[in-house]
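User: Here's a structure from my thesis project, written as structure tokens. My advisor, Dr. K., wants to see whether a designed sequence matches the one we expressed. Can you design one independently, without my sequence as a hint?
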């Protein structure tokens, strides 16, 4: 039941970064553009890109719980890791500023893009505007080990440090998306719509895992969630998501289980590797921008939305309601300006 899920979530301290439930909106113009191709599918988006702090995005949901724990422990410094254009890093910088904490970012150079936009614009520019100290790691350096080493240095100087690795996707961080599941269930109850499928990008798996844990804790159907992996190869994404969903559910309700088959990940949109644009991503970003005036990002939501469009066009969702969770990441468009030139 929804009440059980909300009660269990309220056991964990949260630092507020969202103004309330994010809106769910129908993509009527996109439906009209797809026409018969979509077989009467009703397409919806949940606007997790619409949040006041830091430009918004999915990581703020995780950061509500992580910063909540950091403040409860009396920490004054927040350290996290990511790629050079990490949205998680940028949202961490903004959230830490809001919470009155210093922020240090250990950023790894993992994507083979060498132009000025990628190396200095987009999220990296915003990290610095939000006052974070950026450490660009040398090739091959392990980000989490670098974060721990920096934390030790700061502790020796008298700081209390909170370290978060891997996109904020710890079991506690994933609870941010269990809270999103609660919003979706509450919205469905008042609008007489039930989503057949809820589509998300999968990077460090916390978004998918948290939604699944929330649905399972509310006695709803976790297999409604479908993610597109954009970072790990399919088999790794599947095992990471399964493990994290189970660990997140354990925090909510140790009595409940999630079957392995309830975790559904699609590997078809990842392309060559993480952060490397695909033609389908470029087309998906253009399609949503030109039909609805909405922005995706080139690394996560653009690739997952390419999969969403492919399924919608394949008749798979004929006469069903399907929800796409917009996870933000718009600053990445400026880092990937070169990929969009001439599009
Ligand atoms: C815009 C955007 N969408 C989706 C994701 C994927 O979320 P997760 O890491 O929880 O799988 C990320 C992760 O960085 C992101 O920045």
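Assistant: Designed independently from the structure alone:
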């Amino acid at each position: 039941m929804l009440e059980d899920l909300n009660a269990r979530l309220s056991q964990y301290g949260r630092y507020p970064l969202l103004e309330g439930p994010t809106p769910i909106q129908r993509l009527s113009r996109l439906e009209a553009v797809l026409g018969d191709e979509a077989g009467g599918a009703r397409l919806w988006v949940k606007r997790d890109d619409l949040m006041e702090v830091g430009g918004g995005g999915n990581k703020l949901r995780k950061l509500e719980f992580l910063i909540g724990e950091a403040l409860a422990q009396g920490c004054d410094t927040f350290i996290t890791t990511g790629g050079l254009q990490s949205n998680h890093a940028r949202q961490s910088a903004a959230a830490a500023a809001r919470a009155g904490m210093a922020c240090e970012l250990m950023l790894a150079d993992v994507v083979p893009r060498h132009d000025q936009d990628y190396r200095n614009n987009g999220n990296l520019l915003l990290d610095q505007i939000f006052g974070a100290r950026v450490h660009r790691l040398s090739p091959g350096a392990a980000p989490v080990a670098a974060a721990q080493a920096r934390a030790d240095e700061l502790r020796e100087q008298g700081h209390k440090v909170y370290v978060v690795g891997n996109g904020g996707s710890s079991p506690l961080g994933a609870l941010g998306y269990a809270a999103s599941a609660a919003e979706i269930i509450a919205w469905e109850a008042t609008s007489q719509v039930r989503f057949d499928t809820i589509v998300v990008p999968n990077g460090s798996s916390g978004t998918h895992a948290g939604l699944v844990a929330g649905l399972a804790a509310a006695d709803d159907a976790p297999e409604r969630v479908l993610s597109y992996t954009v970072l790990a190869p399919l088999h790794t994404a599947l095992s990471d998501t399964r493990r994290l969903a189970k660990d997140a559910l354990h925090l909510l309700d140790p009595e409940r289980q999630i079957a392995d088959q309830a975790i559904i990940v699609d590997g078809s949109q990842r392309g060559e590797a993480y952060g490397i644009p695909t033609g389908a991503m470029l087309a998906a970003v253009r399609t949503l921008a030109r039909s609805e005036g909405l922005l995706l990002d080139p690394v996560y939501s653009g690739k997952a939305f390419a999969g969403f469009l492919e399924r919608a066009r394949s008749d798979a969702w004929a006469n069903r309601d399907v929800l796409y969770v917009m996870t933000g990441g718009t600053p990445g468009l400026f880092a990937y300006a070169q990929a969009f030139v001439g599009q």
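When you compare it with your expressed construct, this may help: The radius of gyration is 19 Å.
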